[in-house]
Design brief:
Length: about 250
């Protein structure tokens, strides 16, 4: 029956139908992942040693905010030595083409010592409150946490920005970070080989530098992030799997 139906469809109409199907797949799969949400798995390595996986979900909440959640834990022999699980959660609100963090929560548990801290971004009062340092900091436009800046980076790269600067609040301080596009390159990840653009950060406090590879095919999702310390130690995450929607 399908063969008979196909024979009655003109070549032009057939191409149109294929085009519509491809457009639907593109919209629901890749083109709109900042609107549809996504779940990703990264492989985590340190000095080229596989440590485990980081599972991340970007999901719209009932109140209209977004939640970007990350859970990292060791696997294999590493799990036998290090039993900690690290949970991070960034709550984010969207304003037009920008994303603003509302809170960031860090919780390390399951090992010898539990660790946690919270950062609140109060856009009405213009303050950042950090319960680890017990200090407040001025909250300026372009401020992010360690997860939310990756969402904003995806959006900024869609606007063809070649360099960006973010203020990032982490556990101990609030610092300015700059990234610039340096090259286009094909990158092989555990997920698949992807065309990417590579960004390089400024050297932070003369100690740490970040390299980030983002894939246009995946709305500029970071598919690899490499951190190199001044002593040569490296930490890396590589895209292992991705699914779209919530």
């Amino acid at each position: 029956m399908l063969n008979r139906l196909s024979s009655r469809i003109s070549p032009q109409l057939h191409l149109t139908i294929i085009g519509v199907i491809l457009a639907i797949v593109s919209t629901t799969g890749h083109a709109g992942i900042l609107k549809s949400g996504f779940t990703i798995t990264y492989e985590v390595t340190h000095n080229d040693m596989y440590l485990g996986d980081a599972l991340r979900t970007f999901k719209l909440q009932n109140n209209g905010t977004w939640e970007y959640r990350s859970a990292t834990k060791g696997k294999g022999i590493i799990r036998m030595l290090v039993k900690d699980t690290i949970n991070e959660t960034s709550t984010i609100q969207q304003h037009a083409n920008s994303y603003q963090p509302l809170s960031y929560r860090y919780h390390q548990h399951g090992g010898k010592k539990e660790k946690k801290h919270n950062i609140i971004f109060d856009w009405e009062s213009g303050d950042i409150r950090n319960d680890y340092t017990n200090k407040s900091y001025p909250l300026k436009t372009g401020t992010h946490d360690l997860l939310s800046f990756q969402i904003q980076l995806m959006r900024d790269l869609q606007d063809n920005k070649q360099s960006v600067t973010y203020i990032i609040a982490d556990k101990k301080r609030v610092d300015s970070y700059s990234l610039k596009v340096v090259t286009k390159t094909e990158l092989t990840t555990p997920f698949k080989t992807l065309d990417t653009i590579k960004l390089v950060s400024n050297k932070i406090r003369n100690k740490t530098q970040f390299f980030i590879w983002c894939a246009p095919e995946l709305n500029y999702l970071p598919v690899k992030i490499l951190k190199i310390d001044d002593d040569g130690d490296s930490s890396e995450i590589n895209l292992k799997a991705i699914s779209f929607g919530q």
